[in-house]
Structure formats: C-alpha cells, structure tokens
Design goal:
The protein is mainly alpha-helical. Helices cover 78% and strands 0% of the residues.
C-alpha cells in the first residue's frame, strides 16, 4: 500500500514537472510560421536552447511579460533551489531538442505536442527519448527529496 502510494505520488510529481516544462517551452518555442525549421527558426531555436541552459540569459527567451514571470516563479517554487531550478531549465532544453528531433523540425507539430503536454503530461512523457525520460524521473525524485 505504501509502495503504491509512493508510486502515485512520484507519478503526480513527474506529471507536474512535465506540465511545467511544457509551459516553459510554450513560452520559449519559436513562432509557428512554417512547417519546418527555416534558417531563421533554426537560429531562434538554437538561441532558445542556449538561453535555457544559461541561468543568466534565461530572461531573454522567457521574455519580460507577466506570463513569463509567472512561469519562472512556478519553476523556482517547485524546484525549491537555484540548482534544481537550473536543472529544470536544462531538462526543458533537452525536451525541446527531443521534440525537434521527433517532429522532424515541424514547428506546428512541435507546438501541438507542447499543447498536448498540458492536458496529458503522462502521455507526453511517454514520447520522450529513454535518456530524457530517465532524466525527468531523476529530477522529479531530487525535487521530491528536497521538498521533504
């Protein structure tokens, strides 16, 4: 019974983290102007990935609007520490890279996948690469352990 409850709690934490990561990516993904990544979109994606990995540059891709500030506040609140916050953003970058790979660079499909992640985080998580899914599990466990 305790193991089952622990598994349910971890699943819920992972789903929350996936939903939060998708919110971060919805706020940072390049606009959907074309079916594939044209040179300008590819450059915007590269800048987004770079900024997500750089804690000092994070305000650039998230923007300075109220929605971006709220997403960042949620990330910081759930992560609980600057180190784990950076890991969430790093995982967001990896998820975005996985999405670009799995959608063949189709920005419309990428946006659809991120929207779907908001309503079905478990289903979305199942589409991630095994390495990214493992990183998601590990980060979820770290955050859960830090918040105890």
């Amino acid at each position: 019974m305790v193991d089952s409850m622990s598994r349910k709690t971890r699943t819920l934490q992972k789903a929350t983290l996936v939903a939060l990561i998708s919110a971060v990516l919805l706020g940072t993904a390049p606009p959907t102007h074309a079916q594939g990544l044209d040179p300008a979109s590819a450059a915007a994606l590269a800048e987004t990935l770079k900024a997500l990995a750089n804690p000092n540059g994070r305000s650039l891709p998230l923007g300075n609007d109220a929605r971006a500030a709220e997403i960042d506040r949620q990330v910081r609140s759930i992560a609980g520490s600057p180190q784990l916050t950076q890991e969430v953003y790093g995982l967001a970058a990896r998820v975005l890279a996985d999405l670009v790979q799995s959608t063949g660079g189709d920005v419309g499909k990428l946006s659809e996948a991120l929207e779907r992640a908001q309503s079905d985080p478990g289903g979305f998580a199942a589409t991630l690469s095994p390495q990214t899914l493992q990183q998601l599990r590990e980060l979820s466990d770290k955050i859960a352990g830090a918040n105890r």
